[in-house]
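Quick check before the chapter quiz. The format below is the same one you will see on the exam, so make sure you can read both the input and the output lines.
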Amino acid sequence: MGNEMSRREIIAGAGAVAAMGLISGFIGSEARASAPKGAPGTFSHKLPPLPYAYNALEPVIDEETVRIHHDKHFAGYVKGLNDVLVKLEKARRDGNFDSIGCLENDLAFHGSGVVLHWIYFSTIGPNAGGKPTGKTAEFIDRDFGSFDAFWKQFAAASKAVQGSGWGVLAWEPFSKRLVILQAGIHQNLTSWGVMPILVCDVWEHAYYLKYQNRRAEYVDNFAKIVNWKKVDEHLAMYAGQ
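Here is the expected output.
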């Protein structure tokens, strides 16, 4: 996966929507390859398959939550992104940008939702948890002092999101450091240029069937399903390590 894009192409991205444009190379590569010549913007993204069984995250996350989250919510963002891309292409073709404000808002919302859900499902899994190794461990120790200090900040940021959103561990290309951010909704409160490598979804649909309003308990248990090998692969892809 990492060989499909150069480091320069990755660092050229900025913010969650820019990350969407980069990661879409993985999500929608088959559709992009089949796009007709001379018809820019006519490809569509496809829902990535869940990389494990629906019940693989139990007991941390129940099977029904995973099924609804992936097949309904994630799929809904993919559809929303495809819909807005069609509308933007029509606006360009017609030369009518009367609705550009709404369209750009939808692009940011659905595009960021696609990116963050792709990262979420691809960096958690069964037989996971523990602590990172390799470059991820080195950067966490360097940038946060220790893994324990990092996780306390990451968990606190995830728990403290106001309303719906995400806790985000991201690579910041211009400083060449890891940073922890919150994302409000999907696209708000983030920092330009960062590339997310691990995210904790704290929208209620991610945990409510099992945890109801106990977000803190869900976040604490989330540590048990983080696939640090995948996180390390994401870091290597973005940081060129």
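If your answer matched, good. The CA atoms of residues 163 and 203 lie 8 Å apart.
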